[in-house]
Amino acid sequence: MSRAPEFIVLSDAAVRAVAGANSRHVALIEDAFGVLVETPGGGVSLSGDAKARGQAKKAVQAIAARADQGLEIEEADVRVAIGQARSGGSSGGGPGGAMGGPLPVGKRGQVAPKTPTQARYLEALAQCELVFGLGPAGTGKTFLAVAYGAGLLLRGAVDRLIVSRPAVEAGERLGFLPGDLNEKVDPYMAPVWEALTDILGAEQLRRRREKGEIEVAPIAFLRGRTLSHAFVIVDEAQNASRAQMKMVLTRLGEGARMAVTGDPTQIDLPHLGDSGLAHAVGLLEGVKGIAVTRFSAEDVVRHPLVERIVRAYEADTAQRGRPA
Question: Are residues 287 and 202 in the same domain?
Fold first, then answer.
């Protein structure tokens, strides 16, 4: 096979993104495909056998496409591009399109899907009133739901963003914690608040919380309410009981939408069968207006070790025939 170098013409921004700080991204691509990557100016040169060059080219083009959209490229993006090039899949897509409008710009730049599953998830959020996002940690299911809900709030498409989590046992122990309701619940909601701070900034988040546009409420505290013109996120839903899940799903009112996220393999309830998440998905998948998106280890966009940890646990679950 020919080993002649192949030159890909790219913009300056794309070349910088492919190279990465201290050529870190180049090193990842070279290690993944066994090719030599050079950035002589005006583009990227790939040397290696034809098949390796072809796969590396797909990864480079995916990275370049994101960079040309003005998106910040991190190592997670490079790893995703490499994985998609190996599997023959496509990149996650841009920040707008079928997602019901552009997503917000966070501290690290424009929020956009990094994998095809993330793109399908965002499309489902735009098209359906109720979306279940199922999968392991690090796949972006909660962050993207928060980003989508924040985008709706910023555009005035909804009046409120409500986040809920079964952080305590049916809310019964809240009274023993110090402070008001927010102070009692905030420690359990840290991942959601971190995402909102990233997207909105601390000051805007504070103002919107004070105005009641962003609300935190344990699942048990939603009982008896009708949530209208709101985007509702139910996080860590695998730890909601069947009764809690039915209750929160039936809170949806006029103009409301909901995202329910969770990892069915990480149930902390005393009895795994009590989890309302798998039960609800089994009952509702296929119902008009409801979508289910399943994430896998391939969608992990955190530290590369997280993907390997998830795969190890998935293999153990498959061998044992039950969740960890």
Answer: yes
